[in-house]
Amino acid sequence: MRERIRDLSRRELLKLFGITVAGSLAGEAAWPQRIQAQTKKVNPRKTARNVIFIQNCGAMSPPECLDFKETRFTAKDLDVQTVNSDFVISKTIFPNYQKWAPRAALVRSVYENSLVHSSAQYHTQAGRALNAAILREIPAFGSVVASELESERRSSDTFPTFISVDLWNARCPQIGSGMLHPRFSGLDLNTASVFDAFGAGEDDSAAKSSALAERWEVLNRMSEVAPSGGIGGKANEYKAHYEYAYKILTDTRFKKVLSLSDQDKARYGVPKDRGTCKIGLAFLIARNLLAADGGARFIWVANTYNGGNGPADNHDQLYGRGALAPKGAQLSIYESGPRLDAAFSGLIEDLSKMPGKEPGKTLLDETMVCMIHEFGRNPEMNSNFGRDHWGPCFTNLFMGGGVKPGRVIGKTDGYKVTDVGWQFKQQPMMDHVVSTIYSVLGIDWSKKIVDTPSGRAYEYQQTAPLGGPAFIPLTPIEELFV
To answer: Which is the CATH superfamily of the domain at 2-481?
Structure first.
């Protein structure tokens, strides 16, 4: 084992830990220092301490799910129930909807220009459209959150502010901290391996601690590499990653994060999940990270199942069952819906009962939960009984952290938006979702970084995105809160 560890690459070592890290473009001397507000009119809400961002990979079909539309294509066994006057839902697809749907707010008028999974998922991570000219300097917006909240960290905080779960398995994996300091790049936990590596019980914890110490010794040997070879000028970057990894893995609170009861696993649907990455485990980790209060405040959960574009990429056999059920990376709506619903209902139920930091508040009160899709799906069924990609309108879900339950923003006829639902004539985009997250965390979304490697100012929220509309408003989605 010792010889094998020493032969592994840096990334292979971290993968063995069940953890991956993303990179940073800028060297130490180039990390940005000049950050400016663009307007004095910004007033962040600061209604949440934490955010859980769920990337529902593959783009779950709105006509069956969050913007239900009964058409000639709709299955007859969906058992449609009323949540409120603007929200009906299938109990067949979401059996536990009563535990979360009444708390939810929906934005149904969202627009996405890119209809390719990789670039659209990049948009969700970066909070802006893909621009190949400056790709390497653009940080994940989770890295921006970590940078902004750095001043609020306590000496007892060993967990990174930004932690993701199973993002490694998405079509667009971690994009990193770009031009920001590498300590803001976030750690990605792999549910397929992190429990085996560090979810030790009392009987084998000493052995695994010894293995970790050995691995740490191997990693520290990298410091002996001369700057002219091996890791070269990136030495400080790798050092920051490894020190963060070692701190989190030696913190006893992390072992508690990975300590899951069989009862909780059953409630979150883990035993029935056949995926490489189990969404129930990911949500349990997210819950436990916040409960541990170890410094993690922005948690990104990728619903990836078996990788590829994601389980909801239903170009064929959306309603497939038995021999007609999709195989590999996709699931039919009869499987993907209940799988997500079991884990999501468990998460929301638990957060609503767990105490928050402030007296009288729950973790859900202090945590904004977002369920985000990269785009929508065509209202028409194709010849393979599936739905293709659709950008003109789709639905995202929000709750907690000051979001008003029951709000439904925007109306559609399935094909297009008939009412944008907010104060602007333009449709909301992923850019506005990011500004909303900034606002609830107390971050000025109008800021810009002036001294970037390319010399082009980096705006926290763009108003003239590449490849998008000529102009988008500089604003959060305020209607979620009123």
So the answer is: Alkaline Phosphatase, subunit A (3.40.720.10)
